[in-house]
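Q&A FORM
Asked by: J.P.
Topic: structure of RNA-directed DNA polymerase from mobile element jockey

PROVIDED:
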Amino acid sequence: MFLQETKLTSKDTFRIHGYHVIRRDRTRGRRAETTFGGGEATLIREGTPFTVLDSRCTAPEDETTDALQVELQCPLRIKTLNVYVPPIRASSMSDTPTQHFTPDQWPHDTNAMIFGDVNGHSAAWDPLVEEDAIGEQVQEWISQRDFVVANSGAPTRQSPAPPYALSTPDITLHHSTLTNRVEWETLTALPSDHFPILVKVRVGKRKKEEKRKTKPSFKKADWALFEKIIEEKLAASPERDPVPWWTEEVDEAVRRRDELRAQAKADPAAGAAWREAAKEASLTITKARQESRRTFASGLSLRSDVGQVWSTIRAIDGRSATTRRDDATLRVGNRRTSKDSEKADAFMRVYSAVSHLPPRVREDRRVTHELTDFLRTPCTQCGHSRRGCCSPFSEAEMTEELSRLPARKAAGLDRIANEMLGAVTSPALFNLFINDITDDFPPGVSASLYADDLAIWCSDRDVSAAETKVQRALDSLEEWARRWKMVVSLEKTTSTIFTLDPAEARREAALHFQGQPVKFSPTTTFLGITLDRSLTFTGHVKTIKAKMLQRNNVLRAISGTTWGCSPSDLRSTYLAFSRACADYAAGAWMPGLSESGLRELETVQRQACRTITGCVRSTPVDALAREADLLPFSARRRQLAAVAMERHSRDLPGDPVQRILLPENRPRQRLRYDRGWARTGQEISKDAGLDDFPREPFLVVASTPPWESPPPPTVLFHTGLVRPLPQNAPAEQRRTAAEETLAGLPNPDVQAFTDGSATAGTERGGAGAVVYRSGREVKRIRAPAGRFTSSYTAELLALRETLKYIESILTDQDPALNIQLCTDSLSSLMRLREGPANQTERVADQVWLSLRRLGRRHRVDLQWVPGHAGVAGNEIADAVAREAAELPQDGTPITFAAAKSLLKRHVSREWVESTRHSRPAPATRPHLSHDYHDVVGPGRVRLADRLGLSRREGTALARLRTGHSPALQAYRHFIGAEEDDGCPTCDGGVREDAEHFLTSCPATARVRHDVFGREDPTLREVFADPCRVIEFLRRLGRL
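REPLIED BY: S.T.
REPLY: Here is the structure written out as tokens.
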């Protein structure tokens, strides 16, 4: 038990029965008076061995912070720190001490836990109060020491004075290796402004309760009733397994392990088989957890609930998602009970003792007689005649009273509720009902309706003129609400002025609604974006930073576990769960963000990068982003702005957003750094070369109506072969399987092989096909697929052109034919198989139009064949597609998917090129090698698990590439662990950096020759094979 602010002195006695009390009282008052507050005490239950540690946990000049360190002699040997940091208020003249707090002296061992009231706030544990200096220091210490905040986000303190604000000055920290053992929750408040906190630490493995097996009598069983009960139980069982990673493979491995253990108990000679089975079961469980983790990470998004994520992580790790324990003991007096039957008996005894008033039998009997006599006494009002005030309500009286009740959501006498609830059509009906709400608004006033939320705005050079127009709109809204008997929530209605003039930014709008002034707010949140008066988005950045810090805690929690430490999984989790908070509508607001706002977001992303890669804090920021394969926000905002511009340039003509893209409608540039999303996107698109080609518009509405969307039964998709083959099967086997599959289909009257080609899968596309009729070649089709395209689009284009040609050669006089289309694009067939109503690409929609027309009279089989396997028709189509790629591409429209991919590559190359010319690091710092930008260039980063490396090996590789590795003397000297940076095995003070260690150190020449094939390889040659680098480190004993 850890107590802070005990306010005890040497004259006070403090004892609790059954506990040892270790105290550290304050010896100096924090104010000018002789008042002594602060102090802390750690209470340890008798029978638990412990050691009080004398190591100092505060800075030498820190005279205000109280700290007490105790090590518990439990199986984990937990080292606890009880700490209290008093709030030195700069505004108070009575606070004489100076705050010298620093957490650098705190214990940071893997078995360390910190419990304290630090009076500091950070978004990582306190989303209700802005970050302060202490919170920033603690958050930085957490990131450096690989610690995790155990707080769930719940407040731990409520101010005793109005407005009784909630905050979280109390934190619980532990090393990431203890994440799966710690549970944290707040309990019912004591007479204090702080809530008590319960932290549970599992110090050992949970014992499985052995239940005695019964011996059923199968002869007496009612099997019909048994079957009925089982079916009912299965139907009522939850859909989700409480242990999400428990698969059939795990169940089989555990069953086999238990069987062999039973054999080993009877015959020790079978112990080896049991141990082998135990290892196999452990490996199977680890793989199952990893797969469950990947599945879980792939489903994370911006809308994922943080609390639910933590519950899922605990479930994957094998813990219950809640803190309830079925085996909790119950203490009644001095006796503890754990069995359910004993608990029931104890409850019965306690209830029996308090269920009588009074508890004595004779007095209880007397009170019962008195109550009986009282009930027999005539009523003083009516004498039991049930008249007057004691008479029942009449129907007229009840109707009158019901009419006086306020109208709420319950249905009245007419059985009709005043709100449309419980029907799927209610939102649509409500939108139709309020659709005319803006009809009487004055010209120049715009509005946005989203369900029951209404936003009204007006733009004008004169604030007063805009204010007048908005007031007229409010008057119209008031009249509409009165006419249709709608209630507008004035408490939720606010007004905000957006202006570039600093003087006008301080003005408050004087608007009224229903005779009441409209509350003015300097900021407002519209569709999830926090807008401030000058559109600096400072408040929005603070909100995003707080969300990302909380979600980054999930990364730190799973990065140290055996089932979730894969860098690829960590990166995917960060992208979907954390960075998605910043990506939301970022193409619109992030281009206008200042450099200081960008730094706030970059700081949070760098924390995630260090968690993903394992790099140290001193790693250069550009290299850190390259190692994690993440674009910094300075480049990503340009990418998102360009993608947003490209998307809106394809909107329908007349869309309001398209007017912004016109040069004459560009808004005035507010600041030098704020160029706006449209201007930024147009500049990037021009630099990438997109302006030279037409753009393909979006498919807004499918050509096939929804009531005709089911594909005709004569159009059949075949995505497999008669014999399943492994991916690495020889070409001859794949060709034979493809020919057998085609032979099993109806003999085709018209057969076509199609293929698509694109250089590097992204540029100069070509679509090709060869068509046969009655076994004779009749046509080779060539069509350009676009200067910027994808293989997927080229494959669909080949299908479209082939179907158009087949339609042109068939007539109404032709009988029902068998048409066979063969393609090596499995992805295009899978997408088309989803049906015409689910297509989002215009070319796929056109393919389905042809398929539906042909399917009315003919049978159409679309068959997948393996590519580059020697299938004659496929090889011809592949050659024709390559020829088509050389055709002029100027008139071919570029799809949005191809443009988006091009813009991402263009911005990424821009950023990588800019890092080459960044300012070099000082000579005293470890620096990047000259070949680093070539070794870790765009598309060359492969995270550790993709190379088959463990988390430890991947971390060592990333640190070595960046030069900030404990394996290097230069880095150890940089952090103060060594006196000089010279190579310990070389003369002349040669600096041992990554380049010297890996390419030219004489002491490692023999090992270098054995691993890399030569004694003097270049750094580019060394890092070209990361697995050899790991082998090199292992043979030298530096891993």
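FOLLOW-UP: Residues 723 and 737 are 6 Å apart (CA to CA).
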